[in-house]
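During the no-cost extension, the postdoctoral fellow (Dr. R.K.) reprocessed legacy sequence entries with the updated structure-token encoder. One reprocessed record is reproduced below for audit purposes.
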Amino acid sequence: MHSKALIGRDAGRTQRIIAAYEDYILSVDQNWPTLIFAISVERAQTVSALLNRLGVKARAVSGETAAASRRSIVEAFRAGQIQALVNYAVFRAGFDAPKTRAIFVARPVYSPNLYFQMIGRGLRGEKNDGNDRCLALNVEDNIVNFKGKLAGSDLDWLWA
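Re-encoded structure tokens follow.
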């Protein structure tokens, strides 16, 4: 079975994502607009459902989401009516929500360009109607591809 499929079905991994949300977001400010990059459509839906159970207004979006529905969800996120937007493969580039306060990269990313696009969703800065800071959390997995080196690991020096 492909490593993506294996980690996508790992219930313990999903619980760690929820625990990290509780530790880094709920403990600070539940209203932080948070964008979560999930590993699959199923995981996006699961993470969204679990966050809703915690009282967080969350929605899942993927390529399977109808365009009109996706637009409505994005506008609700931008308006602060949705706190967590959990997506699979749709908001990596060309998505603008400058008030995004936290980014969860909860999927393996091997391309530095893609990684920068993803975390860039929250790095607009105050001059671009964004925040002065954005929390970026990376989920590290034990991946055998690319010798286990994810794109975000090249930036460890920035986070230290």
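The beta strands are 34-37, 58-62, 84-88, 102-105, 135-138. The two ends are 35 Å apart (CA to CA). The remaining legacy entries will be reprocessed before the final report is submitted.
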